[in-house]
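Is this the right way to post structure tokens for a design question? Let me know if I should format differently. Anyway, here goes:
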């Protein structure tokens, strides 16, 4: 049972008072602004007045374990700021004395003020293991109190009905043990999840993928709040308080950096069934609130979890967010261990479903092996907890992408976004489904909701651009991809998708360059494999490079049984439709990304082929043409002298072949008929099968000269054909 243990909550020195509960410093009763890091340094010094607190101790407690290069500058800056606020000086210290190359000592008299606070006495055994159950309970308590404080300080004030937005920043692991990163990340994720469910109509919660970018950041609360566009921020830390671990959490209003609420939790309770009720009721009572029935029911129905299983689960979740094939393998191992230890752990099954989805997506396992396993675990998670959001999303994803049960997936996604409107993933995945079945504008609306909840997630940002790209809004897509690259210039997915959008704008050189960057930035891609680059080479006139990539793709498929659709696409670029459909048939058998067949514009050149329409029908996709498709022109023949045709072939259509004195212009688009000039000017070409066919000015850098004997006659032939 909880016992009352005195713990300092305030320190007084001279005219100052340091309030650890509110996270504030006051001078003569007035609040003094103090940056978070400076506050923590002052706390560490005030807790040990007269003692030397070494620089190494401060680094271990307040900075990440791998911070070395910037630590000295950061510490010096924070101490200088602290002295400035206190009116102190290094030469004649009244408060903080510097011991060169050692550390600092607080030299002013300090009075500690304590109050009885409900904490839990140390257990006799199982200390480290038993903390995991308590963490799950603590996240519920933290979320409940945070919502109460937000209501009283923001939502309720002046009767404001508006919805407030909150971000939970990654908890700093200040234990000095990097092995506990999974624990601080796990606590952060669970707080986000619980807060997101509290009151979606009044409180929006930014997704973990956006806030995780602020891990180990030196940015201020104001800067982070502005970038995330939030009203409130929760920040905290995980510290070693031997033999315990201490979780400290505080709620800050972004507009003025006011600390609205703060609390510390020691993680080492005995496994008493009523501990979560005692802690929740203590905090609720101290704040004078009555918990909502939903929150109270959740607190009262927390399922006991095997502590070792809890640890394995958090480690599995940690690896699941890393975003690589190797990380997915590690996640699978930990999650399988979780289920061995606790066969009724619903969240572990849903997470294992995600792991298998990623193993298929990253090509570690064939889709025909990965997706059925993923479905098995998703269904198991829902059998244990039919309202589990992750289970619904995993099952919906499998139904859409692998089983092609689009109607069933849509029902699950609709239930998910209704159940948890604060889930960026639910809106993101539902948006992809809507694009796949041709409902492009609805898809853009859904991904915009995900983007608002996860504004600096690279993946969500790219998917936002992809929704525009699939809707044939190429300029909007390109603009969105550039926004993502401003956040991370080395994000492979943004470069690749930007390249695809540029291909549709016929900006071939730049498109190829972006796709090449995307390939180069894929971790561990030593062979330079790419699904899309072979097609880009082909339509840009780089046939040798296209053939080389095709060989790489075929070898990759032979080794992994994945990527058949990429081979088909390269053949489309090379103009070999029969081979393209042969490989699309293979992709159909292997269930390789067929759900996206209707959405991608690069299939538009073969979309009218009955074989393609038949394939759409067999996948279960609508067979009508997608919105705003630009149809390719039908083949045209320019008649003329055989010799002139031969020379024109190289000037206008490299790789084309004259037949009986005729030059085939198959695939040439007459997109700029209005831009016709005098017949002595030059012809613009952009590569085999994709030339515009327009005449341009002699000084235009796109111009290809028509020279030699009979040049004027050949130019007149071109002008007469193109301009009528």
């Amino acid at each position: 049972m909880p016992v009352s243990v005195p713990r300092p909550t305030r320190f007084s020195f001279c005219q100052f008072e340091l309030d650890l509960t509110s996270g504030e410093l006051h001078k003569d009763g007035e609040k003094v602004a103090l940056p978070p890091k400076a506050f923590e340094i002052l706390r560490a010094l005030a807790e040990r007045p007269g003692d030397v607190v070494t620089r190494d101790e401060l680094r271990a407690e307040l900075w990440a374990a791998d911070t070395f290069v910037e630590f000295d500058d950061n510490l010096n800056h924070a101490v200088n700021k602290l002295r400035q606020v206190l009116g102190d000086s290094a030469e004649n210290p009244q408060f903080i004395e510097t011991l060169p190359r050692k550390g600092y000592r607080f030299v002013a008299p300090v009075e500690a003020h304590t109050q009885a606070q409900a904490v839990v006495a140390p257990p006799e055994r199982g200390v480290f293991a038993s903390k995991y159950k308590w963490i799950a309970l603590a996240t519920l308590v933290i979320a409940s109190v945070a919502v109460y404080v937000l209501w009283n300080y923001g939502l309720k004030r002046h009767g404001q009905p508006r919805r407030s937005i909150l971000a939970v920043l990654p908890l700093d692991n200040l234990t000095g043990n990097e092995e506990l990163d999974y624990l601080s990340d796990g606590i952060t994720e669970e707080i986000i999840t619980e807060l997101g469910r509290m009151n979606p109509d009044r409180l929006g919660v930014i997704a973990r993928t956006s806030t995780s970018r602020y891990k180990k950041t030196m940015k201020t609360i104001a800067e982070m709040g502005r970038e995330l566009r939030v009203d409130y921020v929760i920040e905290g830390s995980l510290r070693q308080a031997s033999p315990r671990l201490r979780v400290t959490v505080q709620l800050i209003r972004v507009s003025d950096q006011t600390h609205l609420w703060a609390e510390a939790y020691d993680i080492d309770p005995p496994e008493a069934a009523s501990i979560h009720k005692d802690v929740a009721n203590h905090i609720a009572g101290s704040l004078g609130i009555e918990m909502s029935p939903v929150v109270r029911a959740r607190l009262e129905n927390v399922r006991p979890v095997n502590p070792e299983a809890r640890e394995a689960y958090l480690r599995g979740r940690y690896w699941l967010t890393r975003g690589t094939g190797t990380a997915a393998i590690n996640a699978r191992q930990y999650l399988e261990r979780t289920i061995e230890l606790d066969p009724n752990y619903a969240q572990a099954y849903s997470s294992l479903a995600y792991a298998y989805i990623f193993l298929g997506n990253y090509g570690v396992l064939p889709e025909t092996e990965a997706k059925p396993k993923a479905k098995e675990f998703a269904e198991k998670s829902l059998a244990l907890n039919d309202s589990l959001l992750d289970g619904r999303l995993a099952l919906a994803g499998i139904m859409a992408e692998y089983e092609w049960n689009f109607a069933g997936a849509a029902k699950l996604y609709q239930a998910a976004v209704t159940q948890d409107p604060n889930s960026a993933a639910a809106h993101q995945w539902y948006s992809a489904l809507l694009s796949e079945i041709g409902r492009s504008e609805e898809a853009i609306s859904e991904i915009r909701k995900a983007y608002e909840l996860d504004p600096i997630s690279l993946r969500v940002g790219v998917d936002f651009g992809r929704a525009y790209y699939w809707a044939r809004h190429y300029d909007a897509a390109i603009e969105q991809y550039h926004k993502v690259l401003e956040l991370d210039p080395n994000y492979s997915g943004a470069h690749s998708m930007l390249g695809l959008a540029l291909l549709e704008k016929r900006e071939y050189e730049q498109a190829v360059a972006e796709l090449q960057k995307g390939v180069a930035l894929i971790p561990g891609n030593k062979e330079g494999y790419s699904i899309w680059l072979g097609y880009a080479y082909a339509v840009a006139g780089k046939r040798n490079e296209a053939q080389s990539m095709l060989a790489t793709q075929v070898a990759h498929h032979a080794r992994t049984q994945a990527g058949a659709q990429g081979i088909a696409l390269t053949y489309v670029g090379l103009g070999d439709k029969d081979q393209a459909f042969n490989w699309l048939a293979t992709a159909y058998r292997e269930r390789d990304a067929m759900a996206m067949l209707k959405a991608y514009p690069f299939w538009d050149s073969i979309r009218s082929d009955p074989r393609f329409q038949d394939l759409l029908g067999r996948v279960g996709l609508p067979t009508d043409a997608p919105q705003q498709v630009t149809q390719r022109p039908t083949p045209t023949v320019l008649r003329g002298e055989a010799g002139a045709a031969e020379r024109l072939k190289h000037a206008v259509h490299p790789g084309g072949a004259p037949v009986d004195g005729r030059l085939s212009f198959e695939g040439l688009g007459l997109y700029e008929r209005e831009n016709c000039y005098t017949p002595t000017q030059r012809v613009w070409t952009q590569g085999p099968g994709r030339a515009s066919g327009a005449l341009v000015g002699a000084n235009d850098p796109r111009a290809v000269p028509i020279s030699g004997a009979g040049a004027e006659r050949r130019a007149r032939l071109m002008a007469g054909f193109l301009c009528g």
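Format looks fine. Someone answered above. Worth noting: The chain has five domains: 2-115, 122-304, 306-403, 527-630, 637-723. The longest helix spans residues 127-155.
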